[in-house]
Amino acid sequence: MSNHLQVNDQDQLIIGGVLATDLAKEYQTPLYVYDVLTMRKQMRAFKKAFDQAGQKGAVAYASKAFACQAMYQVVAEEGLHLDLVSAGEIFTAVAAGFPMDNVSYNGNNKSLSDLTFAVESGVGTIIIDNFLELDLLHQVMADRKGQQNVILRVVPGVSAHTHDYIQTGQVDSKFGFDLESGQAKRAYELAENDQSLHLLGLSAHIGSQIFEEDGFELAGQKLVDLCASWDYQPEVLDLGGGFGIAYTDADQPRLPEELVLALLNSVQEQTAQKGMRQPDICIEPGRSIAGPAGYSLYTVGSRKDIPGVRTYLAVDGGMGDNIRPALYQADYQAVLANNVHGKPAEHVRLVGKYCESGDVLIQDQELPVTEPGDLVAVLNTGAYGYSMASRYNRNPVPAVVFVENGLSQLVVRGESLADLTSHDRPYQLPGKW
Ligand SMILES: Cc1ncc(COP(=O)(O)O)c(C=O)c1O
């Protein structure tokens, strides 16, 4: 079971110093809860890896993992940068008062209006993904003074060991400029010669939930080799995110900060071998910061025992608040909040309340006997849960609560039923307009 779990002497789950059952009582379930100190510790561990390697650069939290104003405030407080992927995330960062110079903007299909909004919002660095974006950004900058910092995203052609849907660095990818066909070189020439742009360097992101350093090191080496082959001295190399975490006891990743330290050392060696000046290095971890800090709290409801087949145990959330198991068979572990280490009594399939057979949170979970009304906590759900939430079946998106030093605070209000219809407009029947 996850080693950071805290329990009191009655074996009840504690999150950030507060009883999980008290949080459920105060804020209702389903509920997203974040242990803020766990996130801070990971942010600090990444920064320490940079210090240990004597490496300049930035740790940019990949906000796609979990985005809200409160999170951006914590990120700013810890001195991290932000990596954003939409106008909505940029808007949120501005609203949170985040220092926009420390923001990078990723994504594979930024429109003219996205790029205009990014420039007008003062986004520090735009990570260019394709030729259209180069062209559009040139248009955006046409009537403006100064230069926009840009980085070119390239596809290093590295396949990391992870699920197909979360692989982005292999050649057959929708992201970034291809190396072999010469796209990356052409983009480099265009960006270098564009007076409205200041080219800082290159970026690559090879995938997500990666446990070993080899893929990262290989991608780093490819970027260094590429720059050397163009006789280009980059100011920045951005090596993306993807550092894996343990979702269940079966996962045994190296610590994310160890992967990063190995990566930094490897890039330092590579650049030294090529006789290049050491560029700043940027990384973009998302899951490794938000994931282990997050708990999804649910109330147990109905059950269905099928003799000789299995038991389904249903909770009051599901695929709307955590799509990952349905989307890419992600594994999780859960505990009974009032009896964390209780003697397992049965195997259950933990399912949600959505009208889909695929609405499964955990395929096979051992739990003590539960009663309707008991509280279940699914662990390590902080990344890509809330940020991918939907209103499927017209279920409202649950609230998000931050907990730290024994105090809890609502940071995203849960949606009400009235919120669900607040964007609806009555249909005026034809002929009656
Ligand atoms: C460009 C980029 N950077 C960073 C990340 C964050 O990855 P992770 O949350 O696995 O660290 C992603 C996720 O897919 C990404 O596409």
Automatic annotation (TrEMBL):
Cofactor: pyridoxal 5'-phosphate
SUPFAM superfamilies for the chain: Alanine racemase C-terminal domain-like (SSF50621), PLP-binding barrel (SSF51419)
Residues holding substrate: R287, R324, Y328, E356, Y384
One Gene Ontology term of the molecular function aspect: diaminopimelate decarboxylase activity
Cross-referenced PROSITE patterns: ODR_DC_2_2
Modified residues (N6-(pyridoxal phosphate)lysine): K64
Sorted UniProt keywords: Amino-acid biosynthesis, Decarboxylase, Lyase, Lysine biosynthesis, Pyridoxal phosphate
Source organism, top-level taxon: Bacteria
Reactions catalysed according to its record: meso-2,6-diaminopimelate + H(+) = L-lysine + CO2
Binding site for pyridoxal 5'-phosphate: G242, E284, P285, G286, R287, Y384
Orn/DAP/Arg decarboxylase 2 C-terminal domain segment(s): 32-382
Known EC number: 4.1.1.20
Pathway named in the protein's UniProt entry: Amino-acid biosynthesis; L-lysine biosynthesis via DAP pathway; L-lysine from DL-2,6-diaminopimelate: step 1/1
Orn/DAP/Arg decarboxylase 2 N-terminal domain mapped to chain residues: 39-290
Protein role: Specifically catalyzes the decarboxylation of meso-diaminopimelate (meso-DAP) to L-lysine.
Subunit structure: Homodimer.
Similarity-based family: Belongs to the Orn/Lys/Arg decarboxylase class-II family. LysA subfamily.
Protein's recorded name: Diaminopimelate decarboxylase
Species whose genome carries this gene: Fructobacillus americanaquae
Organism classification: Bacteria, Bacillati, Bacillota, Bacilli, Lactobacillales
Gene transcribed to yield this protein: lysA
